[in-house]
Amino acid sequence: MSCLMVERCGTISLDSPDQNALCVRMQGDERVRGQAGLLSERRGSYPFIDFRLLNTTAPSGEIGTKKKVKRLLSFQRYFHASRLLRGIVPQASLHLLDEDYLGQARHMLSKVGTWNFDIFLFDRLTNGNSLVTLLCHLFNLHGLIHHFQLDMVKLHRFLVMIQEDYHSQNPYHNAVHAADVTQAMHCYLKEPKLAHYLTPLDIMLGLMAAAAHDVDHPGVNQPFLIKTKHHLASLYQNVSVLENHHWRSTIGMLRESGLLAHLPVEMIQDVEQQLGSLILATDINRQNEFLTRMKAHSDNRDLSLEDANHRHFILQIALKCADICNPCRVWEMSKQWSEKVCEEFYRQGDLEHRLHLEISPLCNQQKDSIPSIQIGFMSFIVEPLFVEWSRFTENTPLTITMMNNLRKNKGTWRGLLLKQHSNSEDNAAQTNEDKIRTSLEVDHS
Ligand SMILES: [Zn+2]
């Protein structure tokens, strides 16, 4: 059965009332303690729900049953559940998709390893199912289903859970970003320096971590969660709050899906731990820690990819690169990502304004322009990491393409920033002229 067919059948069955996955997920806040003793998490992060609770909690501290339910579910799950309870059966829109679209999506998948892969187009062609479709295909392509004897239905169920727990209303941190990071990860896993040494377990971990690394992202950053006393901030004691949540939620879904239940316990524990280590590495606050170690390895030429620990470290670096590779894409795609991430920042700024909080850096639409945010991000975060990645891969065609795109895109943003400045100077001059003219007119009237 082709991946697209599997994906299609699964989506239809999810919409039927007897589908287990939906029922299991609606149970919400179940904390499942696995044999490893790790706590998994299936609790929602949507900030508005918590604000409503904070503002409407009765003096006794009692919260109404309806609100309790909301608190237990992420916004996505609450939305699906409430529609279902009101008897609204979701449209199985894939039924209506023209076979041409699936044909085009299938054609795109034949070029999934190319750097100019258009994930936005792919998402449209798969009717918003880019993450599930891409992952099914990549698991097949890398022989993971056969190697780990995975059950396709369970795999599909797990991927649908992951995809649906991304917030589609986030301009940036949504399932399309996850699909984009996974596609980039696939490209990096194919780099000759790395591909030669990777085991099927490394590949599965790399792809899973990429797909789930931002799951249930609330669209606001860690400082926002800390200053609003969000339950996740206290749960993780203000350390890698979002990343810990992404990891624990992933474990929750992995266990619910039963995808790996047939594997030895020690292996499941190892997968859960490594997924955590990979996802936690995407915390941008830990950038220097990883850069310093990567530089030291390159300077000392002591990376040995036969060593599982070294391979894991390179997977962490690869995931970090995949997560912030937007500026290394072709301009047309890179620009779209830049606009989306800035829109998410500005939304946080608006929310902070409404809540009478100090507006976070980069979140003030009046002061922080897209070009200035992007130039700073490229110079201080993206370039240093990709310079080290280039040293590691030894300038492969992909690395050269990415570095060229990065240089060109930065130049384009610089040009736009200059234009913006000259426009605002023109505007300022114009305003001054207007003021002078008005005052002269008043004087002469
Ligand atoms: Zn991300």
TrEMBL record:
Positions bound to Zn(2+) 2: D214
Domain PDEase: 97-420
Entry EC no(s): 3.1.4.-
Keyword entries, A-Z: Hydrolase, Metal-binding
A GO BP annotation: signal transduction
Pathway named in the protein's UniProt entry: Purine metabolism; 3',5'-cyclic AMP degradation; AMP from 3',5'-cyclic AMP: step 1/1
Binding site for AMP: H173, N174, A175, V176, H177, D214, D323, Q374
A GO term for molecular function: 3',5'-cyclic-AMP phosphodiesterase activity
Cofactor(s) annotated in UniProt: a divalent metal cation
Region of interest (Disordered), residue spans: 424-445
Active site (UniProt): H173 (proton donor)
Residues that, per the record, bind Zn(2+) 1: H177, H213, D214, D323
Record's cofactor remark: Binds 2 divalent metal cations per subunit. Site 1 may preferentially bind zinc ions, while site 2 has a preference for magnesium and/or manganese ions.
Pfam families, per database record: PDEase_I (PF00233)
Compositionally biased intervals (Basic and acidic residues): 432-445
Keyword set includes Metal-binding: yes
Reactions it catalyzes: 3',5'-cyclic AMP + H2O = AMP + H(+)
CDD domains per UniProt: HDc
PANTHER family cross-referenced by the UniProt entry: CYCLIC NUCLEOTIDE PHOSPHODIESTERASE
Family membership noted in the UniProt record: Belongs to the cyclic nucleotide phosphodiesterase family. PDE7 subfamily.
Protein name per UniProt: Phosphodiesterase
Gene source species: Callorhinchus milii (Ghost shark)
Protein encoded by which gene: LOC103178332
